[in-house]
């Protein structure tokens, strides 16, 4: 999916109940898997309109919301201002096209439904690892590998993520696999047949 389509989808993204439910389910699973500290600074990578990150507002000291879609971030900014949220900041950044990654290092990075849109998954893991503190956590949730029917328009890079391959990449770059789960299952009707698309969650530690 190109950036322009993310920008277009920004205006209706929060109106889909599934998106809200999925983010809440993933956030709840992250919280049950990691003992989050109130002093933590965390980041939401590929944050979009903030549906995942908003679930951590009361749990941490600060949240940095990272995305490349200006429209998504504009909507996120409106939400932050309207709710008077003081511990969330926005960072527009394409981590693959810059060497100027955030100076700050995070205790936890969360990401949801982002990596199957990334060409080089291994490089994505390398970039996020470099943004973590020592012993920091990466909570990566994404679409499990599927047959291509989920994105029928073909507007994606990967048809989901192969979990074993993901774990292998993470191991190669020095991220320790901690646990995995299926916090949410997306249900879509394809050709008059209901299909299920699991969303997995992997927890890694630097």
The major sheet is characterized as: 7 strands, mixed
What is the averaged pLDDT score? 89
Order of helices and strands: HHEEHEEHEHEE
CATH architecture: 3-Layer(aba) Sandwich
**At the third CATH level, what is the topology name?**
Rossmann fold
How many domain units? Answer: 1
CA gyration radius, whole angstroms: 16 Å
Protein name: S-adenosylmethionine-dependent methyltransferase
Domain Methyltransferase type: 44-138
Keywords: Methyltransferase, Transferase
GO biological process, one term: methylation
How would you summarize this macromolecular structure in one to three sentences?
It contains five helices and seven strands.
SSE blueprint:
Layout: H1 3-9, H2 17-33, E1 41-45, E2 62-67, H3 70-82, E3 88-92, E4 106-112, H4 121-130, E5 132-143, H5 163-172, E6 176-190, E7 193-205
Pfam families: Methyltransf_12
InterPro entries: Methyltransf_12, SAM-dependent_MTases_sf
Protein name: S-adenosylmethionine-dependent methyltransferase
Question: Could you explain how this protein is built, in words?
Answer:
The protein is an alpha/beta fold and 206 residues long. The protein has a single domain (3-187), classed as Rossmann fold (3-Layer(aba) Sandwich), CATH 3.40.50.150. Helices cover 28% and strands 31% of the residues. It has helices spanning 3-9, 17-33, 70-82, 121-130, 163-172, and strands spanning 41-45, 62-67, 88-92, 106-112, 132-143, 176-190, 193-205. The protein has a 7-stranded mixed beta sheet with strand order 3-2-1-4-5-7-6. Helix 4 (121-130) links the parallel strand 4 (106-112) and strand 5. The chain is globular. The mean pLDDT is 89.
